[in-house]
Design a protein that fits this description.
Elements lengths: L5 E7 L12 E7 L7 E10 L3 H5 L20 E8 L9 E4 L6 E5 L4 E2 L16 H13 L7 E4 L7 H10 L4 E6 L2 H10 L4 E4 L5 H8 L4 E6 L4 H9 E9 L22 H5 L2 E4 L9 H13 L7 E4 L6 H10 L5 E5 L1
Parallel strand pairs: 8-9, 8-11, 9-10, 11-12, 12-13, 14-15
Antiparallel strand pairs: 1-2, 3-4, 3-6, 3-15, 4-5, 5-7
Helix pairs in contact: 2-3, 2-8, 5-6
Length: 339
């Protein structure tokens, strides 16, 4: 394969205030570097856009370093090796790595993971069999200590993580699984395609009222991708000794500091109900990786676990639009960009 002398990458042009805009991104041409010993030159084929990236666009202290203004952004991607300086990696191998938001990436061999397109579509390694899938699996089973017979509520259930959480719960013997989503189409997807017992559109009325109607006997587990009103509703609906896995709070990611809502107003209920509310990060659960791939991969192969992807075509230049659409909730399942 002939490697071009220049390629495109997307940089953070400015830090957003409130909801990001296309002006916060810059598409530039750069020289394609030589990889050198111990590194790979990878032509990216497909990349991920994820909610956590919004936090990295700000300079607030967080669990991961912020993107630097004027520098290329980063994120999960899968590409094809075009030059290899690493033993065990050949030209043509497909690899998963963390240098998305660019057409060509130089990747440290120690940070590249081979993937097999014969076993699963490439996009699956960024979604249902990748970081979002492991997040769902670890959050439900280990963080929330799910057990057979639990009633489970998943917020943002039609997204990359939520669609896996609900199905794993059902396959592991949940008594009832309820999901929330932002459109009637997504609600239908959860119930008709993924097998949720109930789902509701949070835009159609107060979350607390809709959750109480969907779970009249209360909930035991809450997997939260949204925060805000959803978390307050879950606290109200929890049975004694309920457990929440706090994965994200996308409802407040784009709020200005002056506009942030107060925390759940009913958090005092956590005392009497003896609740456990636990935040977590997926990389704390690498020890579950093999078990996760074996169990979830098996369910996919058997047709027991389904998933959707929203793939934006048109190349790297479309990535900012895909990212903004994901933040708006336009995607069904995992949001990806084909380069």
């Amino acid at each position: 394969m002939t490697v071009p002398s220049t390629a495109q990458e997307i940089r953070l042009a400015s830090r957003p205030e409130g909801f990001p805009t296309l002006e916060n991104f810059e598409l530039v041409s750069v020289a394609v570097p030589e990889p050198g010993e111990g590194r790979l030159l990878v032509r990216n084929l497909i990349m991920s856009v994820d909610p956590y990236m919004r936090g990295r666009m700000s300079d607030a202290k967080s669990y991961v370093a912020p993107y630097e203004v004027g520098k290329v952004m980063e994120g999960g991607a899968i590409g094809e090796v075009v030059v290899s300086g690493v033993e065990g990696f050949a030209v043509g191998d497909k690899v998963l790595h963390g240098s998305g938001w660019r057409e060509y990436a130089v990747v440290d061999g120690a940070r590249a993971v081979k993937v097999d397109p014969e076993k699963a579509p490439l996009g699956a390694y960024l979604g249902v069999l990748g970081m979002p899938g492991l997040t769902a699996y670890a959050g439900l089973l280990e963080v929330a200590s799910f057990k057979e017979g639990d009633v489970v509520f998943v917020s943002g259930a039609a997204g990359a993580v939520g669609q896996v959480v609900g199905q794993v719960a059902k396959l592991r013997g949940a008594a009832r699984v309820i999901g929330s989503a932002g459109t009637d189409e997504k609600v239908a997807y959860l119930v008709d395609e993924l097998g949720f017992d109930a789902a509701f559109n949070y835009r159609n009325g107060p979350v607390a009222e809709q959750l109480a109607a969907a779970a009249p006997e209360g909930i035991d587990v809450f997997f939260d991708n949204v925060g805000g009103e959803h978390l307050e509703a879950a606290v109200a609906s929890f049975n004694n000794y309920g457990r929440a896995a706090l994965c994200g709070a996308i409802s407040v990611y784009n709020a200005k500091a002056s506009d942030l809502p107060p925390g759940p107003r009913n958090l005092g209920l956590a005392v009497g109900k003896r609740l456990t509310l636990r935040g977590f990060l997926v990389w704390d659960f690498d020890h579950l990786q093999e078990e996760f791939v074996r169990e979830v991969g098996g369910w996919i192969a058997e047709g027991k676990l389904r998933y959707r992807e929203t793939v934006t075509e048109g190349g790297l230049g479309k990535a900012p639009e895909a990212f903004l659409g994901m933040l708006r909730g336009d995607n069904l399942g995992k949001a990806l960009v084909r380069l």
